[in-house]
What we know:
Layout: E1 4-7, E2 10-13, H1 19-35, H2 37-41, H3 47-62, H4 73-78, H5 82-86, E3 89-90, E4 97-98, H6 102-108, H7 114-131, H8 137-143, H9 159-167
Amino acid sequence: MVVEFRYLGTTLTNQNSIQEEIKSRLNSGNACYHSMQTLLVSSLLSKNVKMKMYRTIILPVVLYRCETWALTLGEKRRLRVLRRIFGPERYKVTGEWRKIHHEDLNDLYSSPSLVRVIKSRGMRWAGHVARMGERRGVCRVKVGKHEGRRPLGRPRHRCEVNIKMDIR
Length: 168
């Protein structure tokens, strides 16, 4: 029995777990970051150029097929990569170095966080599925009920529950 395999660039598991897919996407994004690290850390490039590189090279790799992801808190923490690109900030008055908070990064560089992008793409995809006919396979999978017994333990995050929480 196969536990996991790659199909069309996506990691599929026998437990239908999305965590392995998110890990492989983040690893691919980290590989892109490390291949460009000398440019992204360089003080010769402006922060606008670094942001353009981040948006055009790293983001598409990380966000491939993110519409159906149900993120946990640990995965949301792992998706914060802007701090690595822009590094620490120096206070003008005291000259001390400090970490830039994620909210400050998002405000300074007018870029939505990856979690917000994933949520908005999931909402857009849910709208497409909601408009589909009930005969379409995607809609049947989305609204269908599982047969059999649920395994012991806490239920996994599901896409539709996350979408309902995002709407609120």
